[in-house]
Amino acid sequence: MLIIPAIDMINGECVRLSKGDYSSKKVYEKNPLLQAQKFEDIGLTHLHLVDLDGAKCGSVQNWKVIETLCSKTKLKIDFGGGVKTTKELELLFELGVDKVTCGSIAVKNKDLVLDWLSIYKDKLILGADCQNYLIKTSGWLEANELEVTSFVKDYFNKGFKYCISTDIAQDGMMKGPSFALYNKLQQAVPNMLLIASGGISCFSDLLQLKAKNLYGTIVGKAYYEGVLSLEEMGRLNNAC
């Protein structure tokens, strides 16, 4: 199981939110490159990079940070947040982003996403963030009536291989991940390469997720609040 550290950006700074609430923003590092280099130096190989400005307004905003992280590190970056056009998608890959997460756009413009999938295939990740098992979009500000397992299964059947899923009620709360959500998704779509996100509270949570044979786990606030150390994250990642 990959340990994937997260950098969420607002105004070019590394921040974290609680339950997706933008008013709960806390800045942890003004220079995302310095933070990314810490992850790289400990031996982590992947980075989950989210443009919260882009997720909220519907178009990618933090282009300079993206370009800097791609050019100044060797981390395999999966990016999400506001990707709505083919031009944006192409530019992200040109800059060196490894994968792009399709979240809101997968709900709002399925035909476009399937066109992208026919071209980019495994370079795309399905984003399936939910509350009470219902998908939420646009920086988690818009609710939908789409049930998460049906949503993921449909896109898996269309060819998506990877999925990041967050239980919004757990995100940033450090009260433990939503094991029930991941059990539900694994039962519905056992061959999907699932990446857990949200709620990590301790090293034991990572061990339990690893035992479920998930593809990866994203670590955010637990690291930034000092609950998990870089050394612990690096050690478990290297043991996987």
The portion of residues assigned to helices is: 40-55%
Report the radius of gyration as a whole number of Å.
16 Å
Strand order of the biggest β-sheet: 1-4-5-6-7-11-12-13
User: Can you count the helices?
Assistant: 11
Mean pLDDT, nearest integer? 94
CATH superfamily heading: Aldolase class I
CATH topology: TIM Barrel
| Distance, first to last CA | 5 Å
User: Stretches where pLDDT falls below 50 for ≥5 residues?
Assistant: none
Main sheet record? 8 strands, parallel, barrel
Tell me the β content. Answer: 25-35%
Q: Assign an overall shape.
A: globular
CATH class: Alpha Beta
Q: How many domains, as an integer?
A: 1
Number of strands: 13
Q: What structural category do the secondary elements indicate?
A: alpha/beta
The CATH architecture: Alpha-Beta Barrel
Question: Overview of this structure, please?
Answer:
It is a single chain. The chain has a single domain (about 1-240), classed as Alpha-Beta Barrel (TIM Barrel), CATH 3.20.20. The N and C termini lie close together (about 5 Å). It is α/β, with parallel strands linked by helices. The protein has helices spanning about 30-40, 50-55, 65-70, 85-95, 105-110, 110-120, 150-160, 180-190, 205-210, 220-225, 230-240, and strands spanning about 1-10, 15-20, 20-30, 45-50, 75-80, 100, 125, 130, 135, 140-145, 160-165, 195, 215-220. The longest helix is centred in the middle third of the chain and has 11 residues, at about 110-120. Strands 1-4-5-6-7-11-12-13 form an eight-stranded parallel beta barrel, surrounded by eight helices. Strands 8-9-10 form a three-stranded antiparallel β-sheet.
